[in-house]
Each structure stands twice: as C-alpha cells, then as structure tokens.
Amino acid sequence: MELVLALGIGVLTAAGVWLLLRPRTFQVIIGLSLLGYAVNLFIFAMGRLRAGSSPVLRGDGSVDPAAYADPVPQALVLTAIVISFALTALFLVVLLTSRGITGSDHIDGREPGE
Amino acid sequence: MSGWLDHLIVIPVVLPLIAAAAMLLLKEQRYSLKALISLGCLIILVGVAYVLLHEAAVGGPAGDDTARIYNLGAWSAPFGITLVADRLSALMLALTATLAAGGLLFSYARWDRAGPRFHALYLLLVMGVNGAVLTGDLFNLFVFFEVMLAASYGLLLHGSGENRVRAGLGYVAINLTASLFFLIGVSLIYGVTGALNMADIANRVATIPEHDRALFHIGCAILGVAFLVKAAAWPLGFWLPGAYAAASAPVAAVFAILSKVGVYVILRLATLLFGIEAGASAGFGNLWLLSAGVATVVFGAAGMVASRRLEQTAGYAVMTSSGTVLAVVGTADSGAIGGALFYMAASTLAAGALFLIAEILARGEDQAVSPDEAVFDDEYDDPFAADDVQEVGRILPASTAFLGVAFVLAGLVTVSLPPLAGFAGKLSIFVALLAGEGAASPASWTLIGVLTLSSFAALVALTRFGVAGFWRREDAAPHKVRSPEFLAIGGLVLCCLWLSVGAAAGLTYAERTGEWLTSPRDYISGVLGGRS
Questions:
Q1: What is the C-alpha to C-alpha distance for residues B178 and B203, in angstroms, rounded to an integer?
Q2: How many domains does chain A have?
Q3: Domain map (residue ranges) of chain B
Q4: Are B93 and B42 in contact (CB under 8 A)?
Q5: Would you place residue B321 in the very low, low, confident or very high pLDDT band (cuts 50, 70, 90)?
Q6: Could you tell me the pLDDT band of residue B389, with boundaries at 50, 70 and 90?
Q7: What is the domain-level CATH number for residue A92?
Q8: Is the pLDDT of residue B73 over 50?
Q9: In a domain, A59, yes or no
Q10: pLDDT value of position B60
Q11: What distances in angstroms separate CA B283 from CA B228, B276, B290, B448, B466, one per listed residue?
C-alpha cells in the first residue's frame, strides 16, 4: 500500500511540475490542480497509513488510541481541498480574463515572437 | 482572566470579517455607505491595535513581558486554536492598521470606485494579515494566509487593464505554488512532531528522535520556502516589483505589509523553533537566512537604481527592507533583531507613502493609470467615464511643495539617512552587530557593508526621481492632489516623523521585543499554560 501511494504522489507531482512549467495558461492550471492532489495525498499520508481503522473514537469504556487512525490530517486535508478548489476557480477566472483581454492563452499574454 | 481586554485580541479578526460580509449585501452603487463602514472599521482597528501595542509595551502586572492569550471557543492551548498577542504581534497589528488606513484614505479620491467590491476585499485582506500575525497555530496560519492571498488576488486586479491582468496571472500562479509548499511543510512537521500549535512544536523540538530530525528540518525548510517567496527573498522574489508596480496605488501601499507578513512568520518560527533551547536544531537555517537576506538586499538595491518608474523603485525598496530583516534574523542577535524591527516599521510606512506619491506623479504622464476594460462585467459602469465629476475632495493648493516635502521625508526614511527613523533603525542594527557575541565577524562586516551600500544605491535612485518629478518649469501644470490623498500621504509621512521623534521609546520597545523573541520560554509557557 505504501508503494502504491508513494508512486501515486510521485507521478502526480511529476506531471504537475512539468505542466506548471509549460507556456500555456490552461496547462499551468491543470498542473497546479495535479500538484494540489499530490499535496493532499501527502498530507493524508503524514497521518500514517492504516487500513480498516476509523478516526472516530467509540465511547465504550477504555479506548486504545493505537487502534484508530489520526483524525487531524484528515481534517487538514478537507480544509486544504476546499481552499485549493476555491483558489483554482479564482485562477480560472483570471485566466479567462487574460485570454479575453490579450487574445492569447500564453502566460506572457502574447504569442512568442510577436 | 476574562476582562474586556482579553476579548480585544479577537476584534482585529472578527470586525473586518463581519464588516466585509455585511458589505456584500449592499449593492455596488451605495459606495459612500461602504466607504463609511470601512473607514469606521479601520478607525476601530487602529484604536485596538494601539491599545494592544500599549499593553504589550507596559507588560504584565510586574512590568514583565507577557503574551496575551485568547483561546477560541475556550479550548485550551494545544487542542484548540489560540490567538497570541505578544510584543511582535502587537507591533505588526499597529503597522498593518496604520498602513491600511493610509491606503484606504487615499482610495477615497477615486480608486475605491474603479471596480466592484473594493472595500470588502480590502477589509478581508486586513483581516487575513491580522489573523496571520495573531494566530499561534501553524495550520490556522495557513488559513489566514490564504484569506489574505485570496483578497490580494482580487485587489491586484482592481482597476483592471491588461497590465494588471498579466501581472495578476503570474502573481496568482506563484502564490498558489508557494501555498502548496506551505502545506507540504506543515504536514511534514505534523508528521514528525504530532503538533500544530507553534508553542507545542517548540516544546518538542529538543526531544525529536535523531532519526526523525532530518525530516523535521526538511519540513521547516520547505515551510520556509513558502514564506521566503512571500517575503520576496532572492531568488524567489522576482515576481514582486512587477506585480506591485502594476497594482493600483492604494493596493500597492497596503501590499507593502504583505511581504512583511512573510518576514514576520520567518522571524517568529526561526526564533521559536530554532532558538537556544532547540538542542541539536538550534540555529538551523540561520546561515541560509543571512545569505538569502544579503542577496535580496543586493538585488533590491541594484533594482532600485535600474528601474525607471518610481512605483517599481518602491517595489524594490520593499524587497530591500525585507532582505535587511531576513539577514538580521539570520544573525540571531537580539539587539540587531530589535533594530531591524524598528527599521521595518519605518521603511514599510515609507514604502507605502512612496507608492502613493508615485501614482500622483505618474498622472498625466501616461495612460497606464486609467483602466481600459472591466475584469468583471457585472455591476460595472466605467467609474472614470466622467473622471473629474466623480473624484472626491477639493484640489489643494501648493500641491507640488507638499508632494516634494513628503517625497523627501519618505525618501530619507527609505535611504536611512539621519535624522529620520530609518537611520535610527539601521544604526542600532550596526551597533548590535559590532557589540554582540559574534562581534565584527566576517558575516557582520559583510552585512554592514551591504546595508550601507544599499542605502547609497537608494539615495542615487530616489534623488533621480526627485529631480525628475519636482524640478519643474514654472509654467508646468501643478500636480493635482485631492484632500483624501493629501490626508493619506501626510498621515503616513507624519507617522514616519512620529517614529523618528519618538525613536528612543520605539527603539526600547523594539529591542525588548528582540530579547523577548530570542528567549522564547515565556512565550511557550504563556501559550501552553494559559488556560482560561
């Protein structure tokens, strides 16, 4: 399971970084989204991987915290997802405005060589 | 521990949030009501900030330094979210409120009607900055940082035009990437220490098992990258001059505090996590901060000389002042940190004033200040269509003389020449560097040399703009300064003068802040022991 997760984060990051460095605004925004997914998975993994254990303690007598998943990274991931979603939407608006005003989807606002 | 003063801490966060949310319910045409609300809001914020500053200066019952703790929802420290107002936070709050009030006043002449929802975004920006300097929790810091950034994206585009959209695109992309670094850093630190409360992390640094320590350092370094991007340290700060020069003048003025928030977090974390009590981690990253700071000062000084527009020079001045503070943080000398804080307060106010003056000087020279197209079409009717009709306030006489004096004063602070506050700050940095433990080491001499040369570069650059802007033929049309603009620029410059006149008290405060920061035990026990 660790290997699959690590490979998943690695592939997402690599693809994200490559796209982020591309010259078209749409590629940049997709790259940022992919990087965002990779980071969210990474935060989740920082709570340690564990199959079949819930993050919510049951209130029946004494509880052994070791049998439960860490809920804090899951809460952090939720917050991070919401924020990155909102900011990606905002970036999309800027991207479309830039496309509308400059007539080019290049990140410099003009085609290379113009 | 439930006096009204304790609830004062939460006002800088809650008040602008409520006011901004309420403003969204008002339609765009009622801008005078909105202007009134945000003016009232900022007046209260300035008041609260100065009360907190006074409280921090007076200290606890026995005159000792204390951190004022506010546990949100009464959850005690490591579990709930804590707001902490200590000397440094109070200083940042006062600086933010003053600068924001100046920018807001300036915008009343015409900029606040150059696009929709200016006031709501402005107050949200102030709320984000206030929250970021008050919070004692690393993840909460992320949330406030994002609020601040989201508002700044909207404000950078305020007024529209091709330049702003183009600059905005790069600004948003850079900051979104930096936020991802922030998240990676925070989660690594949580993975190693199991804590998010800054005081709690600081408590655990010394006892991190050796095989995890490298991972902790990597986490802190990645977190540091996020703030160095925000503070525009070389080589992560190339975005700053372009973005700030493209922003409308009041926005650029208040943006001067944004890069200082990056500096603030680095100062806070470096002293808290890697102070003398951090065991094997003590002093981690100091050499990097020192080198990055020196490189930033060199780059900023070169940029000031090279730029051909005053707003760009002001942007580079912001970089130079961030670089100065970063380099001093790298020396970990409490006296020098105190001097740097005083210098930071003065130079940030001066940079804000320079941005405002630059816009007035640029008027009539080119059309870059007038927007050509709307970013958001809804509720948008071209505010500059009937330009002179819409501008608020009377055109004041003797405007060129006033602008010239303001420019000279703001310039003197930026250049750090005597007798103004910038000089006092830099001088006390030098004195502390020469008298401290690492007295006159090669690093201190390098720093002193670079800071002196950067002052000289700033002098050359600003003198050139002064000659070009104010030595005019008698028949040249005078600059049009409207009364809100006069109040804003005059107010900011007066604050610089006030800092210079009260330099003794200010420096004492700043130096005690430096001591307070470099011995973080009181902060930690204050936060973790403060159960209300």
A1: 27
A2: 1
A3: 4-363+393-529
A4: no
A5: very high
A6: very low
A7: 1.10.287
A8: yes
A9: no
A10: 67
A11: 17, 7, 12, 21, 43
H-type helices in B436-530, by residue range?
A: 442-470, 483-501, 503-518, 521-529
pLDDT for B375 equals 45
Distance CA B319, CA B317 (A): 5
Average pLDDT over residues B218-246: 91
Q: Is residue A27 part of a domain?
A: yes
Which chain A residue's Cα is nearest to B191?
A: A46
Of B153, B169, B190, the CB nearest to A72: B190
Residue A54 lies inside a defined structural domain of this protein = no
Q: Is B110 within 8 Å of B50 (Cβ atoms)?
A: no
What mean pLDDT is predicted for residues B378-401?
A: 59
ipTM rounded to 2 decimals = 0.92
Q: Of B166, B181, B186, B196, which to mutate for an interface test with A (greatest number of A Cβ within 10 Å)?
A: B166
B455: Cβ–Cβ under 8 A, 6 or more apart, which residues? Answer: B415, B416, B417, B426
| Type of residue at A19 | L
Kindly report the length of chain B: 532
For the segment B466-492, the average pLDDT, to the nearest whole number, is: 82
Q: Quick check: B421 and B342 in contact, CB under 8 A?
A: yes
Q: Is residue A11 part of a domain?
A: yes
- Residues of chain B with pLDDT > 90, as a percent, come to 42
The secondary structure element, H or E, covering residue B159 is none
Best residue in A33, A87, A92, A111 for a mutation probing chain B (most B CBs within 10 Å): A87
B336 in Cβ contact with B433 (< 8 Å): yes
Q: What is the pTM of this model?
A: 0.90
Mean pLDDT of B247-254: 90
Structure tokens at B144: 């406030």
